[in-house]
Amino acid sequence: MHHEHCLKAYSRPEAKGGIFQLNTLFNHLPKKHQKNLENLNSSHKNDFYKLHGDRITAYLDNWLLDDEQQEMLKLNPWNIFFLSAAAHLFETEIAGSLERLETRGIIGKDRARIIHLICSGIKDFDQLLNTQKVEYEAAPVNISLLACAIRLGAELDLEHPNTARNIAGNLSTSEKIPFKQFCESFSVSYVGPHSFLSGTVQVRICCHHPEVHRALKHHESGMQKILHNINAQVSPRFLFSEIIYEIEPTGYKPLDMKFSVDSTAALQLFTGNRLYSDRRVFLRELIQNAVDACNLKKLFDDDYTPEISIDFDDQIKVVKFRDNGIGMDRQWIEKYFLKIGISFYQSGDIKSINQNRVDFNFISKFGIGFLSSFLVSDKIVIQTRKNDSPGLLITITNLQDYFDVRFAPEDCATGTQVTLYLTESKINYCRSIEYICFLKTNIRYLTIPVELLDHEGKATTLGQEKLAYDGVKNSGISYDFVTSLKFEDSEGYLFIKAKRNLNSLYALESARGGVSIFQDGIFVTQTESLLPEGARQNVIGRINLSGKEKCELSMDRNRIFWTEQQLQNIKRIIRLAMVDLAKQLLSDSGKLNPPLSINKSLINQLAIFFDFNEIDDQMYEGLGHPLQEIVGKRFRDFIRVNFAHTQKQSTIPEADGYGEKWQQKILASFAKRSRPPLP
Q: Whole-angstrom distance between the N-terminal and C-terminal Cα of the chain?
């Protein structure tokens, strides 16, 4: 049976050309070649290869080739002919023989040679290294790109019998399945660009057999290697660098499959500046590990008093972190400590222990903070002991080698001590980084005190500071105003200062800095975005998130990711607190009986804080009459300017988004004035 196939389908008027307009290019071929191809098509008695070729060219025509590759191929229109011809012929016996291609006499000797080179390269990548490009009709034919494109498209046609046989080859010898049954065990619903992962090919598959599922995942790994090899030698390279098989299991539970991470690359990321930009971060990370260990122990011992300490030796060559928390046994070390990226405090184990109690907050999330120690040290010794378990002494000198693990002395205390031996190049650096100031900034609101002994033998207690500002300080030149933020579990405060002369409060003082965000007492970031734009020159704040208000943090804990609901909630809480600040300030100002002009100036300054788009009825009621008048006037002016064309109507439909009662009252006044007189 002959398996030759031509491109006649692309010459039909109803065949829609894609990015290359294949039908138009076919019609530009000389008439004799069109006739010869039609003769070849009429001798083709099997649609087996036609369907496969059609699917490959559809992938290439619609999405697999990017703009740069398309422009390269368009340098010679014959590239499209050779691509389509090879896609339909490469698996047939005719393509394996240059002589057979030539003796058919339908495509010419030179074109037969090029098709043969492409078909050979599809099956043998090494062949492409010797034949990258050839000339045909004074223009380049990119043999390498054409062969790689067809190979990639062919491999993505998972339901084609040849590809299916390759997939079936991944079955274990004990689980051989008849080929027909194997082919019926899965179906492909989509092959194309991933819907949200750029540079990724997505293959959606429905599978009915767990062993076929496993074979498909092995084929996915093989496809990833093929794509890598193709991109390593083809030019222009493909836009895609990843291939993902998304398999929907039917009638069985999915296999437990996990991503494989290259350990060297991962450790370089976790211990390098790409993740932690500040080398001092190891101080914070080891302290938060100690805090978690202490909080966990509190769950088992109500009489327990947590203790955390940091000791620097006199040469700043050795730093010791010590806590009397839960400690670790061998099972814990193997299950969590050695698993980079897995935190016990985010596991099912801790959830079963904690039972959703919000009075105990655990900081660790990603299980990578300890690795920050290698930013400054080349040797780490961990001594740890859990109640009723022998202590362990672990020495780490190379993250990619085995650790030295021994039993600790019998008098080893419960808890964990981490000793860092700083690298020589980091010792002077550590002396100059003012680590005490770094710690004071980052852990000042921890509920557990941290005892620090510096290299001069001076002891300092860190943490346990009050989050609240010192309170109102009234002097001859200024007034301070503080209000709390009404969170359910968290704590927060806003602060503003007003200038004073002998007779009145006459202006607001500048105070830039925005709102400092802490979570579980550890500093995360500082931002102005939570404050209205008009208040950023004068209002500052502090927030310590805990319990239900805790938010998602970046891996380096320097960024916070609010959900839309969290962001709207915290902004509303801040604006309610600003209403309270304004009331305090105006009340105290009124007691001093300031001149009318000064009082009006102060009110105008405060009014800038309140955007009518953000003021709900509760805030509006709290503002008081002077500020209500200004906010209301701004809203009236806005409606008058933007909706003047609707003022002869009974309603203002474009303003329906303003649903607060105070806004609706103002809108109704416009409609009332514009209502036509009664007859």
A: 94
